């Protein structure tokens, strides 16, 4: 690839592809440079270091997840939006970066500014819809945290269980509906 055509976005996109195929443990600065077709010392023009790359991958993944969910939700609101948000969330995480890798990345890079911004945007959808259901304004943030913690926690659990994926998904969605009913 010619130097003038490379951007930070291209570097992060390639890193996201590499992580989807091999995981974070196999993502290296030198390997990424080789994949892109540039010298490792030229990478500094686009990213500061491997931590910048990895946090960029996490932020980009979350941004794409959020964009995908919002596109599919359309005009849905309230309970329907929250149910569908959870379903779209788990559907999206079946492709690309393995969810266990994503959790590991979030643990390591959640304090990075780009990751924090992407997470904040992801939280806004549930917060606004939970706000439509929750009469106590002080509970909106707590309910949102419960909702997202449940989704992420169950995804971690579901990722480890491969025996009956359809049954697990039905159980997950039934439980998400039970949680949504608690918000009223």
UniProtKB/TrEMBL annotation:
User: Keyword NAD, does the record have it?
Assistant: no
What protein does this entry describe? Transcriptional regulator, TetR family
Report the coiled-coil segments: none
Species this chain originates from: Lentilactobacillus kosonis
Q: Which UniProt keywords apply?
A: DNA-binding
PROSITE patterns under this entry? HTH_TETR_2
> What phylogenetic lineage does the species belong to?
Bacteria, Bacillati, Bacillota, Bacilli, Lactobacillales
Secretion signal, residue range per the UniProt entry: none
Location of the DNA-binding region in this protein: 28-47
Give the top-rank taxon of the lineage listed in the UniProt record for this protein: Bacteria
Concerning InterPro entries, the annotation shows:
Homeodomain-like_sf, HTH_TetR
Gene Ontology molecular functions:
DNA binding
Q: Which residues form the HTH tetR-type domain?
A: 5-65
Q: Which SUPFAM superfamilies match?
A: Homeodomain-like
């Amino acid at each position: 690839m010619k130097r003038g055509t490379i951007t930070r976005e291209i570097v992060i996109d390639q890193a996201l592809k590499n992580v989807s195929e091999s995981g974070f443990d196999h993502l290296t600065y030198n390997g990424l440079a080789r994949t892109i077709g540039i010298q490792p010392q030229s990478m500094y023009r686009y990213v500061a270091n491997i931590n910048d790359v990895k946090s960029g991958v996490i932020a980009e993944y979350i941004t794409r997840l959020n964009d995908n969910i919002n596109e599919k939700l359309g005009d849905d609101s309230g309970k329907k939006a929250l149910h569908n948000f959870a379903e779209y969330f788990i559907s999206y995480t079946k492709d690309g970066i393995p969810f266990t890798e994503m959790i590991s990345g979030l643990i390591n890079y959640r304090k990075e500014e780009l990751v924090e911004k992407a997470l904040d945007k992801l939280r806004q959808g549930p917060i606004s819809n939970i706000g439509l259901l929750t009469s106590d304004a002080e509970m909106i943030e707590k309910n949102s945290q419960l909702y997202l913690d449940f989704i992420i926690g169950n995804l971690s659990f579901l990722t480890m269980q491969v025996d009956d994926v359809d049954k697990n998904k039905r159980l997950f969605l039934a439980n998400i509906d039970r949680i949504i009913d608690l918000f009223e």
